[in-house]
What we know:
Layout: H1 3-20, E1 25-29, E2 35-43, E3 49-60, E4 64-73, E5 76-83, E6 88-99, E7 102-115, E8 121-133, E9 137-148
Antiparallel strand pairs: 1-9, 2-8, 3-7, 3-9, 4-5, 4-8, 6-7
Amino acid sequence: MTAARFRALGLVGVGILTVAACGKEIGRIPLRDQGAGETTVQATPGKPLALWTSLDVKYTGAFAAHYEVEILQGGAVVGKATCNPLDVSTRLSSKQTSFGDDHTMSWQGKMRCEVALANGGATTVRAKLIVDQRPASLAIRDLSLVVKE
Length: 149
């Protein structure tokens, strides 16, 4: 095997490990503007729920938003988190452009928040998207909350 082919296979292996390390999507709350939604997932006992965002926005000026997330099991709140879709530790399919005050952002990102669960089973995830700073020009194509394990 040539050195170039060996390096290419190594890069493919790293790419597969990177995607595998991002977890499996078990639920999604589609959001396209400020508002709320929920989804029910089957949680694994002792495994935290990783909260991701599917972000695709275009705006002029300053933009800020956050999710208020509640996790329910058996009708009772068992966890809460506040998550910033612009503050992510991992980005997949990331695209960003800025020309002066005009910005476009698109990515699948793991937000710096998660919720640990003691019990597994049917789990309701409720999310409320709040736009903290709304610029004069804002197009939200997607700002969904994604739940992964």
